[in-house]
């Protein structure tokens, strides 16, 4: 089916046109996503996110021509794949740092990590010095990658309290890392 016809039908409110769009581009987007993600489940998730964003943002209303449709889908896919890869990289770094800090704090037995950067030892010492509530907030937001609102909800705190705890933690950690200056 022609892209211009799909766009026209979407603008007219024909929800069946979205299925036609999905059927037309899903395989090509999935193959492209697999080049970035390597994991089939991650690739499928990203492709679905592209279609969801297209629908939720009513992108079909903003399309000038049918060439813009294909370009939008593939550019959005590329950006979402790169975002996912960056998030996975950050998560792995955070998990490595967290595992090291726990090991140095005596919280958990050691795992097979490579030699950490020297600053992680100082970070582990700084984390040990944080009050328990502040440490829990830091763990949730920075190590578990929860949003501040999610952490506030799970800890039954106000979002302002979570934000204040994070500011407090950063001040204390900075002070510790700078040698108590």
List keywords for this structure.
181 residues, mainly alpha, Rna Polymerase Sigma Factor, Chain: A, Arc Repressor Mutant, subunit A, 2 domains, 79% helix, 0% strand, elongated
Strand content: under 5%
Count of structural domains = 2
**How helix-rich are the residues, as a percent range?**
over 70%
Give the low-pLDDT segments. Answer: 107-113
Supply Rg. Answer: 23 Å
CATH class of the largest domain: Mainly Alpha
CATH homologous superfamily annotation of the largest domain: Winged helix-like DNA-binding domain superfamily/Winged helix DNA-binding domain
Count of individual beta strands: 0
Task: Just name the CATH architecture of the largest domain.
Answer: Orthogonal Bundle
Count helical runs: 9
Straight-line distance between termini: 67 Å
CATH topology of the largest domain: Arc Repressor Mutant, subunit A
Arithmetic mean of pLDDT: 81
- The helix/strand series, from N terminus to C terminus, equals HHHHHHHHH
Apparent shape: elongated
Structural class: mainly alpha
**Assembly type:** single chain
Largest sheet: none
InterPro entries: RNA_pol_sigma-70-like, RNA_pol_sigma-70_dom, RNA_pol_sigma70_r2, RNA_pol_sigma70_r4_t2, RNA_pol_sigma_r2, RNA_pol_sigma_r3/r4-like, WH-like_DNA-bd_sf
Domain RNA polymerase sigma factor 70 region 4 type: 123-173
Protein name: RNA polymerase sigma-70 factor, ECF subfamily
Family: Belongs to the sigma-70 factor family. ECF subfamily.
